[in-house]
DNA sequence: ATGAAAGCGCTAACAA
DNA sequence: TTGTTAGCGCTTTCAT
């Protein structure tokens, strides 16, 4: 019994050449039905599994894509990866995951790994600590298809899939205005990350569109964490004129704010409104439930893969039109911001 | 300029043979420092990246492992994968992820994919719908290292990493007893999955150890979901003698129970105690915070990989001692079950 | 419809 | 210390 049968093994058993077996296995049109049958039968008897490594080396295609995320543990990215995986598998592609842990060094290592593995394409959500983009231009120079999702970079011209963060923030802020809150603050995120920058812009635009004066002291730069949310709330509540609502750039920050506000015996949403962003899982289970903006994570994953696949399949054609898919944010108004009945 | 430089390209530039370059790149001891230097310099000038596909074909090692999880979106598995990834990358291994979506068919497909990709080893957490294990014995027959984590199967003799579910359940139940609850029910999970079976056993043992009579009507078989948790609670509350505490086999079930109990204006933990299992992220953010059992997910991932690596590296040696790592569950007593001051 | 032969890029045994 | 040679398993022209 052969431990790992090869095409040659099958060929020998049938007194044909490896080429014939290869063709039979890949359903080549000019192979007789009888040989196909017999090849298939011997293959299954020998428990033959195709060797993709050999096939990849020869054909230059690995049917693997690489995905770099800041962390697989953050629900958002886990969910996007889920979306990527699902479509990828449908199309016969496998997915390699690499976590950058938000550092530039890991991100570079991830790219190196993927290039060495000769993946057919790469999907990246840029790390917080990444400023230098030479590793990405490197990928481009090697003509390996590359698509950014969520965390993009505008300096370098790479196709991307994002949601409209500006619009999401605008909707969130305007919702708080609609609910009758008068002094709306914003707990923002790291401004060099585009999504957070855009959310701040959306917040400011919503104020402006409603003739509300922007107050610098109503901005607190938080850091995607419960703790910084608490600090944000402490800051806001210490002001001479404290806000009566906060739009947080991200759900964990919103959660921290909620905890701090509750600790101060301020009632939510009656006296204080809160909106988050990201639709993390916990939001609908906390008390009060957290209003937030859903980012269509699974769809984002699916779209990212489809865009990448498109690039992979049309690599040769120089239709390098800069592609960009912008998904629509979906507001979820829950208890933390709803003081009017809908 | 060569798009993708190979070892031969470097060799030609230096008038040496590919073999020399290969050795220089892999730091072979018998290569002079000068040649190493020059090879490295030319390599970087040509932007050479090693072709792992070719290397794998030749060496028979891919430095890739495959991981099959029921779903990457469930926090528990995402977190384990995180642990796997971290150690794997440290050891120079890459990780392929495959989601079974709890179905047997996908699981088989995942195994096929991994065997075709010639991964060096496979890590699996068995799907809910899997009863037939021939695909696993198949892997074993091909001498591909295989390790189960969390969701194991006792019929087939495969090394595994699990936590002591029995003990966790015992601790959870006894804690409720300690807190003075008198009628403790159990919302269990699918019994053909070993972890849930063991948790039920642990529950029963704890009762017995404390001379509490087991009541069949205090068992409700839930289904790892908020909804089934609600149904469980509704069932328990409808009993002639309703319980005053529930140990749920899993956090989402516990959450459903909590929602239903709160909806009935029953105070937690004063009138009703709840314990979950899994330490899902939301538990510490809901009101009241959920007491639960932590499963050491990241550690589980790390241990799983280490065990697999050990098998990979000692493949030839026939020291096929059945390995099993059992991690210790860590109780987290929070508001939902603490009515005595600690 | 099938065979012959070459080669993808790398590594490793054997020579020198 | 470096070269020679062969081959991992598969695909793919070019023949027949």
Describe the structure.
The structure is a homodimer of 342-residue chains. The first copy, chain A, is α/β, with parallel strands linked by helices and 342 residues long. Chain A has 2 domains: 59-163 and 296-327, Response regulator (Rossmann fold); 165-295, Response regulator (Rossmann fold), CATH 3.40.50. Helices cover 43% and strands 14% of the residues of chain A. Chain A is built from 12 helices and 12 strands. In chain A, the strands form 3 sheets. Chain A has a 6-stranded parallel β-sheet, with helices on both faces. Chain A has a 4-stranded parallel β-sheet with strand order 7-6-8-9, with helices on both faces. In chain A, strands 10-12 form a two-stranded antiparallel sheet. The model of chain A has no long low-confidence stretch (mean pLDDT 93). Chains A and B meet through helix 4, helix 5, strand 2 and helix 6 of A and helix 4, helix 5, strand 2 and helix 6 of B. The first copy, chain A, binds a DNA duplex (16 and 16 nucleotides) through residues 6-8, 16-20, 22-23, 26, 28, 30-32, 35, 50-60.
